[in-house]
Amino acid sequence: MKFEDIKKEYLADVQKSGDIKKLTNVSGRARNGSAQDIVMVNKLRGFLQTRPAYQPTADAKEELQNYVLIIDEVNRANLPAVFGELIYALEYRGQTVTSLYDIDGDASLVLPPNLYIIGTMNTADRSVGHIDYALRRRFAFKSVLPDPAPVHTAAKAVFEKVSQLFIANYASLDWSAEHPKLEPSAYLAPDFKPEDVWIGHSYFIAQDTKEHTAIEQLNLKRTFELVPLLHEYLKDGVLLPEAKSVIDEISTLPIH
Description:
Blueprint: H1 3-11, H2 17-21, H3 28-32, H4 34-50, E1 67-71, H5 79-83, H6 86-91, E2 96-103, E3 106-110, E4 115-119, H7 133-136, H8 156-163, H9 194-197, H10 214-236, H11 244-252
Parallel strand pairs: 1-4
Antiparallel strand pairs: 2-3
Helix pairs in contact: 1-4, 10-11
């Protein structure tokens, strides 16, 4: 028995089994077992008739809570197709926009003002789609650069050496600045900006687990994730050929 069927039967004001059999918007189970549904509809009808009417008071009004929807790697999808009419709802918050789809005959769509949408994206993923201008206008963009603060102590030298492939002013960079000025490294191809391809600090973060120590994890990441990615950068022309010697050095730097 589905509540959705009971609700539709109640709204249709069914009085006997034959009334349910005539409905086209309920399930086949409801039409076949309509006698049982009549019992439930009558119980619902009786409950609603005897329930005290709701009287809102000033004390009953609650403050709206904020809700956050986080979409990880948002640029990996066809965003206009995924968001659909939500693109317009983002611009007209609290107002009704019409969707191509309806629920129980209602095609209205309202995005409440207390719902916040955060999307993360990796600008280094060149193979995925870009954010089109219509969607860009509806979001604020915040760049998050690699940060040495969470880097494991044993991997700081490797992180610095990797960073020097992308920026020339690693030693003098003002890490506390909201928009630090990045000077492109001589190893970086001129077609690329450091902030778009600089490898992040996630490769240099680890904690001891039952299976592997943090040092073991860092070495595994370096061997099977970091160095292969740098070679891909070299092959794709993100890094210039001169970077190969630095990559070879990164492969052998001690992490202990």
